[in-house]
Sequence to fold (262 residues):
Amino acid sequence: MDIRQQKQYKILVVGDACSDVYVFGACSRLSPEAPVPVFVKTREETRRGMSENVSNNLKSFNCEVTLHHNTNDIIKKRIVDEKFNQHLIRIDEESNIDRIDTSGFNSDYIGKFDAVIISDYNKGFLFDEDIRLLTNLAKSCNIPIFADTKRKNLSNFVGTVLKLNKAESASSHGISECSTSIVTLGKEGAMWNERIFPVEESEVHDVCGAGDVFLSALVFMYLESNRNMSKSINFANKCASVSVGHFGTYCLSKGDIDDLCF
Fold:
């Protein structure tokens, strides 16, 4: 499969976005003021995370993406020992997130897309009513809708393909009979319809953003394979395995995709 020759799918992504900031440095001595290590900063790197990571990975698959996300930023700052690539602490900075403006969301707008993705980190950008609006519009347009959410109550995600990790699945409730759920299981792969889709063993450096990569690959392959869910999950597993082999929030490269698709 050559993604350069495939149809350029149009995908709507809606959800919270953040800046993943990595502050690299070293701890080589203790503070004379208290028994704590002194961190000496050497460099800083910022990557776009959450819904923007989903969007960027879809673009790597040559998809045309329209993204609706918060404009007042969420910052996740990670202090990292650069010698071992070890996270020492994470500092979150969250301002009040403005709610999404859905005034332009109607059947004509949603009908332009091949798929809709809700990347919901439950930070305030999406309200329950907004989720119900999106799911109802997608259903009326016969467009597949996928969701990754941190909410405990999933009753508003009617008709969606829900991507949850093992902990989220165990603590959530209200999954509609009209929905289907895919549960990612880390090194064990993923589960759908009580079937385990194993993943090849790989070296894990960082799981940050791997769920975003999984979701992006799942949706792309679902469209490319004429809605073959089994094939889509297997492909998403492979892509997530590539992601965890890299440090930090990761966006698949052209080389990664060439290796995965040929």
Observations:
- The longest helix spans residues 229-244.
